[in-house]
Amino acid sequence: MPATTLDLREMPPPERHSKIHDSFEALSSGETLRIINDHEPKPLFYEMQAEADRFDAANYRCEQEGPQKYVADLPKQ
Question: Is the pTM of this model over 0.90?
């Protein structure tokens, strides 16, 4: 179960990544941030991999649940 869920679909795109990073940093070790997005967040995966030291890329998951609904789990080591 994710510790925090962010539905980004109604959020302006320029605000999304800073909100994601802030929410991820607030997690404790072993917790997961779940995001709901209107497009596949593959660029975010690479950004997290490069910039977030405790991002657990091996356990990242993303599923498409509708035409404009992608649910991604970003776990923290």
Answer: yes
CA-CA-CA-CA torsion sign (50, 23, 32, 44): negative
CB atoms within 10 A of CB 37: 20
* Tens of each residue's pLDDT in the chain, 77 residues: 688 999 999 999 999 999 999 999 999 999 999 999 999 999 999 999 999 999 999 999 999 999 999 999 999 99
Residue 48 has which token pair? 């997290």
